[in-house]
Amino acid sequence: MATDARLTADFWVRAYLRRLELANLPAYVTAKGDATAGAVLIKVATLDGQARAFQRSFDLMTGNRAWVTLSAGPEAEVDATITRQRRNDPDLWVIEIESRSGQTLLDEDGLSS
User: Fold this and answer.
1) Which of 15, 31, 72, 95 has a CA that sits 20 to 30 A from residue 37's CA?
2) Residue 100: what pLDDT?
3) Quick check: 37 and 9 in contact, CB under 8 A?
4) Which residues are within 8 A (CB) of 41 and not within 5 positions of it... i.e. 6 or more apart?
5) Pairwise CA distance, residues 12 & 99, whole Å
6) pTM of the predicted model, to two decimals?
């Protein structure tokens, strides 16, 4: 669930925020985690009361990494899930995106795996 082993979490977060900025997607760091190795959660709020949260998943059998949905539904429920995750992992980063279409860029090259 951590970011790419060759990059620090802080570097990855800064690069991701820049990509979001270039795509005109408002994004905010709502929880700053460990600068070196903190895991990252991405929340996208669709501005209609709904949201989704994504986390990195690592497949031990194949070695592949992918973004998977951690929670989806009413924004308050997604926020509650994120709060529980932060309670269990204080080094966790949380980035919140505001996108009516739900766009995260997580499926783009360099972010998708």
Assistant:
1) 72
2) 97
3) yes
4) 53, 54, 55, 70, 82, 85, 92, 93, 94, 95
5) 20
6) 0.88
Chunked mean pLDDT (size 10), the chain, 113 residues: 64 95 97 93 98 90 86 98 96 97 91 63
Q: What is the DSSP string of the chain?
A: -BS-TTS-HHHHHHHHHHHHHHTT--EEEEE---TTT-BEEEEEE-SSSEEEEEEEEE-TTT--EEEEEEEEEEHHHHHHHHHHHHHH-TT-EEEEEE-TT---STTSTTT--
